[in-house]
Amino acid sequence: MDLPDLATQMADLGARAKAASALLSQTSGAQRAAAVTAMAAALRAAAPVILAANDSDMARATELSPSLRDRLKLTPERLEGVAKGLDEIAALPDPLGAVLEEWHQPNGLHFQKIRVPLGVIGIIYESRPNVTADAGALCVKSGNAVILRGGSDSFASSGAILTALRAGLTAAGLPEDCVQAVPTPDRAAVGLLLTMTDTLDVVIPRGGKSLIARVAADSRVPVLKHLDGNCHTYIHSAADLDKARRVVLNAKLRRTGVCGATESLLFDAAIVQSHAAPILKDLLDAGCVVRADAALEALDPRIEPATEADWGTEYLEAIVSAKVVSGVDAAIEHINRYGSHHTEAILTEDARAAAAFLAGVDSAIVLHNASTQFADGGEFGFGAEIGISTGKLHARGPVGAQHLTSIKYLVRGNGTVRAG
Amino acid sequence: MDLPDLATQMADLGARAKAASALLSQTSGAQRAAAVTAMAAALRAAAPVILAANDSDMARATELSPSLRDRLKLTPERLEGVAKGLDEIAALPDPLGAVLEEWHQPNGLHFQKIRVPLGVIGIIYESRPNVTADAGALCVKSGNAVILRGGSDSFASSGAILTALRAGLTAAGLPEDCVQAVPTPDRAAVGLLLTMTDTLDVVIPRGGKSLIARVAADSRVPVLKHLDGNCHTYIHSAADLDKARRVVLNAKLRRTGVCGATESLLFDAAIVQSHAAPILKDLLDAGCVVRADAALEALDPRIEPATEADWGTEYLEAIVSAKVVSGVDAAIEHINRYGSHHTEAILTEDARAAAAFLAGVDSAIVLHNASTQFADGGEFGFGAEIGISTGKLHARGPVGAQHLTSIKYLVRGNGTVRAG
After folding, report:
1. A176-190, B45-59, B343-357, B363-377: which range is least confident on average?
2. Which ipTM did the prediction report?
3. Which CATH fold topology does A231-379 show?
4. B161 to chain A, minimum CA–CA distance in Å?
């Protein structure tokens, strides 16, 4: 598709999204929940078509790594899981309409602060086709129209899922243009999307570091930042060894490909022999690569030397970096310098050390005696999530339907004028 | 100053701001309140120096319009007003630390959502030197370090105010680098500021349309948008005439230079003779220019014809545009198309029309039977404000100290690991 044609099509998408958004913003919570339920039903009805489209994506994706092929792959069970996820989104409390605050001023004016949709959201993501359904449903649930741009690998699967979602919207009596996608996997479409400031209220990149860096650098539309998760677990000198072994193994290896997986371990100098040795042995025995500083390297011949680059790396694999620090202040300093402000944990039985860590670490989520793998909207009780925001503006931490909203002030008077 | 030198100085400012922010984020509400009180005291003590600096700014600013000269001018009374404003900011409730939400999950994890500072804020503004003091105090109150870039016209005044604020911080035992300013009024400093993504968490432009457009277009740092206020008052067919005359006169003419001043009037067709005629006569008699569509132009020979450009114009002067609409839906459509999503009012005794207008108008503040001039943080009860945000992300409407914050999740377990 040449660029003028694409630009025309993108402008048309934008106009349709705005029109759908205006209608959607006036619907009731019950209408939006029913629409998400209908979207789930339509997904189930279209399962054969969606799976066939996924087969064609898989057939084309021969050059992908096994783990990326696995992310792309849909099965009847996985698709049913996606539909169930939509049913759960439908059942969430309505994120809109609530009066958040309400007060009178002495001049008689009555103020209400209420929740309203953001408007039109752009979501740019990579190979997982299920994001098409999750993101579409979360946006409809929260009263927002959405323009999706999925990965080129999943173009056919996402297209088939989109057709089903739109059929569900129509069946529920809502405009099908509440959920749209860019017409081509061409990167030029992303470039255009990032300039649509009159249409898009926010753009959310969900994917790898290079995608997010590109969106952050190029976007003229406000971005809800989802950076990498270079998550740390700090084993303090007063850590309980049994808890620490259990938590570290879970934090690193439960799933290595999720953004809440621990990528770096910090050990207090006093517990190198007592704690670091058994914990690193657990990891090595489980097949994890350990890259450590000189103080830890001597503990086991299997440990590799770490380089400066390791401290800033999100592996998303069975690799962990490990370092000795001189105490809680040094741990905080290391994390705030090398981390990505996502999720960090301290393991300790010392309440003062825990309090200092929780206050001093500048991350969206800070845990005490728990696995960093809890960095997930579902585990927080938010239902499905778009991702984990590492920015400090608007939303920080897991972003669910309730965070895809803005506010508005309603002010009521009786011919009230301002003095002075 | 040449660019390499300036870049070095800006990087140094940034590093100092980050260090000050880390300390400031660990202070108590009492410490920050005491610091703002000390800043107010230091302003009063430095009054002769500040007024002398302002005299030199005024002597240079011979080419400015009378209204801009008036905005630049400081008098002993105005400076005392600024100091009083700081005392009021000191007395506001602490915006930080509060536990916003708190819950347990079935697995025993305990969650807290707390308020934390944003970090380092950049504020770019124009000729009013008092913004230096207000913005500095609001940032310190909310635990944020700030880098200020004032207008070149007020460079000497702002510099003298800054020196006083920093003396106040030192007297209160906080780092003086909590409040800094760029070293030169040179526009290149703004360009550098907008690229400091490693330092600045947010940049807030406060000023005219061209400044804000430039910041929005060039900034790589997230922007808290303060657009123009093209505010509307819609006089519905069921408006009470006495209230409407009183409110419109106040909304347009109480102060014409504030962002909440009404710039455009919409009248229902049914009340052109009964309401539009006396209301426009009031305005014309008070010296206001009226630019209206053909249906209204015939009401008074003093009325000028409006052009399409008038519907989108924020005059900030004694000029108003006026137009006939066919009802509440047409009014909403006109406002959402031509307005700036700032503040709009409906005047009516019909509760259903009011509800439709409040729900349908996509603006930060929507009023019923009250003057748009209430668009002000003080009138909302928020204390001093940085401005009115017209964006939908993070903060919408008046931005006070409580809005210069982010959140953080604290999660406490007991060796808790994630299943599955």
Report:
1. A176-190
2. 0.92
3. Aldehyde Dehydrogenase; Chain A, domain 2 (3.40.309)
4. 27
